[in-house]
Amino acid sequence: MGNLSSKIEHIVVLMLENRSFDSMLGKLYPSNNTFDGLNGDESNPLQDQPDIPVWSSLATDSESMSIPTPDPGELWVDINMQLFGLNGKPGNQPPSMNGFVNNYVRQNAEPAANYKPKPIMHHYTQAQVPVISQLAKQFAVCDQWFASAPCQTWPNRFFLHTGTANGYENNSPSHFPYLMNTIFNRLNEANKHWGIYFHDFPQTLTLSNLWPHLENFHSFDDFKEDAKNGRLPAYSFIEPRYFPDVKLPNDQHPPHNVGMGEELIADVYNAVRNSPTWHKTLLIITYDEHGGCYDHVPPPTAVPPDNTNAQPFGFDRYGVRVPAVLVSPYIKQGTILRAAPNDNLPHNGPPYPFDHTSIIATVRNCFNLGGSLTNRDAVAPDLESVLNLDSPSNDGPATVTPLPYTISDSELQAALNAPLNGFQKALHEAATHLPPLALAENTENVCACIEDHIENLVNGTMAEVPNHKTPAEALPFIKDKLAAFLGK
């Protein structure tokens, strides 16, 4: 705890969408025995066909930067097939990691002919994603960071904020209200300031315990201003742009262009690096889950977060490995962070690898917030060990620059008129269930309005979700609901 509390006063987390470790950083250190990346001969079987090897396109055009297309499967049942194979079943045995291709070609959101086997085995090179690659090499990369569960986006983001998914494996069906205690509420109790900075709609607003704290929700432009003026809170959480608007999404959710996410990573780093608080800041860049993209490392077993008798899954296994890059002037250049020797993974019991609840453990220990939220973050390793310099002597580059990219009008229009992906549909539903706080006249009325709304949700009174099919249809509605909630 000493390194955390004495060196760090500000923790900033940027969580992107749906990319595996191998897909983004598998070739970061191509010939390094201390780094668990791709060696190039990995493959996955395709039923009754030759195996499909890992590969990279090398190009930086829009099509090459949007692989895999179409969107892979990410439901709990999809991930089980990806982990255990076409005919495998979950159990105590280590996952074989040989079902990614067979699962991908069985998706049905689009015509079957669109699901070619090759895209799911694709990985990006350092030349294609120079920003995250440069930061990973200049500071630290963790090659043992797993999604908290082999589940969809919402469950894994819930783990980051609450230490549990409350027994829910998928985004849908929804289970409003979500009343889990959060790390943000724990910060409130300790009078530590926090902020959630978002682009279009913050997924964190699915957590009803955050509804009374609207003053802590800000635009991403506010983040850049707060960093510039030395006003960053103790804990900042950044959400990307999930929908196309005047710009393309920058969340990197397949098949969204990963170059847009590179721009966001650069914006966040440049803001933090040039802030007066740089020498007291830890920046964590990670992804909620793998989104169906191939990774070769079997996830270990995990400690269930609570006593929820979840069916059919007990949340006793981590999800697929995801990218995690740690940035601070207290980090030695070229650090590869892990909690256990590679030959000990997967295994049962401690030492446990890093997962999203490591962020909860880090925030708790850094700001002296007391005990764990759940059994999962109780055993999660925190990030104290990554701060391996005695003084903040690794300043890194003053700025980082993403590859240039110009969005064409036709590309933006195609994105606006594309079908909503599963995550966008879930956010659309979440916006529908926000309380209309603009109707409240004062703070007391706001609290009463929230309490009444939660009681209605508990009793099953649900608003009807409009039948919007595309971002062009859904986003104006989402913005109106968010404005009514925030009182703007």
What's the SSE pattern?
HEHEEHHHEEHHEEHEHEEEEHHHHHH
Largest sheet: 8 strands, mixed
Which segments are poorly predicted (pLDDT under 50) over 5 or more consecutive residues? Answer: none
Number of strands: 12
Characterize the structure shown.
- With 488 residues, the chain is α/β, with parallel strands linked by helices.
- The protein folds into 2 domains: 2-386, Alkaline Phosphatase, subunit A (3-Layer(aba) Sandwich), CATH 3.40.720.10; 418-486, no CATH class.
- The protein has 15 helices and 12 strands.
- It has helices at residues 2-7, 21-25, 76-84, 100-104, 130-138, 153-162, 183-189, 220-228, 258-273, 357-366, 375-379, 409-416, 422-432, 443-458, 471-486, and strands at residues 10-16, 43-46, 49-53, 140-142, 145-146, 194-198, 217-219, 235-238, 281-287, 324-327, 335-337, 354-355.
- Strands 7-6-8-1-9-10-4-11 form an 8-stranded mixed sheet, with helices on both faces.
- The longest helix has 16 residues, at 258-273.
- The protein is globular.
- The two termini are 41 Å apart.
Question: What are the key terms here?
Answer:
488 residues; alpha/beta; Alkaline Phosphatase, subunit A; 2 domains; eight-stranded mixed beta sheet; two-stranded antiparallel ribbon; 29% helix; 10% strand
Task: Outline the fold blueprint.
Elements: H1 2-7, E1 10-16, H2 21-25, E2 43-46, E3 49-53, H3 76-84, H4 100-104, H5 130-138, E4 140-142, E5 145-146, H6 153-162, H7 183-189, E6 194-198, E7 217-219, H8 220-228, E8 235-238, H9 258-273, E9 281-287, E10 324-327, E11 335-337, E12 354-355, H10 357-366, H11 375-379, H12 409-416, H13 422-432, H14 443-458, H15 471-486
Parallel strand pairs: 1-8, 1-9, 4-11, 5-12, 6-7, 6-8
Antiparallel strand pairs: 2-3, 4-10, 9-10
